[in-house]
Amino acid sequence: MSLNIGVFLFLKHYQTMKQSTKYRILYHLAFAGIFVSVWFMLHFTTNLENTYKGAICAVAAVLLAPKVKTYQTPSGKKLQVKWFKILKEISDCR
Predict the structure, then answer these.
(1) Looking at the domain assignment, is residue 65 inside a domain?
(2) pTM
């Protein structure tokens, strides 16, 4: 029940969020998804201890998750999202 309320509140405030906040949420969701998927891959294919699995998953998630960076230009603040080799620049960083 509380998950439904949280999703409702998130969707209600999604339209008023800053674009940089939306991309930060994307980063955290991608990080968690990569971490969990690598964890399950390692769990079912290797006999590593949990400490090593966690370390490998954390490194993989840090390397594979999108990077979000805000920087200042003469025309104003810009937001840059880089995921793998794809580089996307978003000009309106409200």
Answers:
(1) yes
(2) 0.71
DSSP-derived secondary structure for the chain = -HHHHHHHHHHHHHTTS-HHHHHHHHHHHHHHHHHHHHHHHHHHH----HHHHHHHHHHHHHHHSPEEEEEEETTEEEEEEEETTEEEEES---
What domain range is 59 assigned to?
23-90
Amino acid found at 85 = K
Domains in the chain: how many in total? Answer: 1
pLDDT digits (tens, 9 = 90+) for 42-64: 999 999 999 999 999 999 998 88
What is the token pair recorded at 13? 């405030």
Residue 41 lies in a domain: yes
